[in-house]
């Protein structure tokens, strides 16, 4: 995962037409950890507090997806990143960074801290999250199933204003 912005990438809200491709990417990215089936994506899209986005290349091909839950009351908001997935053929092209920034912009509209879980062996993702203000706050043993891989819980403190997908503070 790179910190450069992928200039030809278009971020847009996910709709049901994207589910089959997201399921395909899940199977490529997470084969040992119970990849999400179509019903999981349908359930996530149906929840009013969730925001799911897709990344499309210059040809309109879906090359990544991401989702966040916007939780808590308005006076004590928080958010939880549920997933970020990028086509393995597009890794290191800035798509993960672009999707993360878009999710953080969504969370920033309400304020509050942002949480996520990440495999302890996913060094590129951990570096990306740390670069965007996340810190490890805990360890979840055997979090990912069926592989039994551990996860770090990471937190990004509440920020004043929010960053748009290009990283500009508002």
UniProtKB/TrEMBL annotation:
Its EC number is 2.3.1.255. It comes from the Bacteria. GO terms for molecular function: protein-N-terminal amino-acid acetyltransferase activity. The keyword Transferase applies. It is an enzyme of class 2 (transferase). Residues 9-159 form the N-acetyltransferase domain. The keyword Transferase applies. It holds the Pfam family Acetyltransf_1. Keywords: Acyltransferase, Transferase. NCBIfam families: rimI. This is N-alpha-acetyltransferase RimI. The lineage of its organism: Bacteria, Bacillati, Actinomycetota, Actinomycetes, Mycobacteriales.
């Amino acid at each position: 995962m790179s910190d450069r912005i992928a200039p030809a990438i278009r971020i847009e809200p996910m709709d049901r037409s994207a589910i089959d491709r997201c399921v395909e990417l899940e199977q490529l990215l997470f084969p040992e950890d119970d990849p999400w089936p179509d019903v999981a994506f349908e359930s996530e899209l149906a929840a009013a507090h969730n925001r799911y986005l897709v990344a499309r290349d210059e040809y309109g091909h879906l090359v990544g997806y991401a989702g966040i839950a916007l939780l808590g009351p308005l006076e004590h908001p928080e958010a939880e990143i549920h997933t970020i997935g990028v086509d393995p053929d597009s890794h290191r092209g800035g798509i993960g960074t672009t999707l993360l920034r878009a999710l953080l912009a969504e969370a920033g509209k309400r304020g509050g801290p942002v949480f996520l879980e990440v495999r302890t062996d996913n060094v590129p993702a951990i570096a990306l999250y740390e670069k965007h203000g996340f810190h490890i706050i805990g360890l979840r043993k055997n979090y990912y199933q069926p592989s039994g891989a551990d996860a770090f819980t990471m937190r990004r403190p509440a920020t004043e204003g929010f960053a748009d997908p290009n990283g500009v503070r508002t």
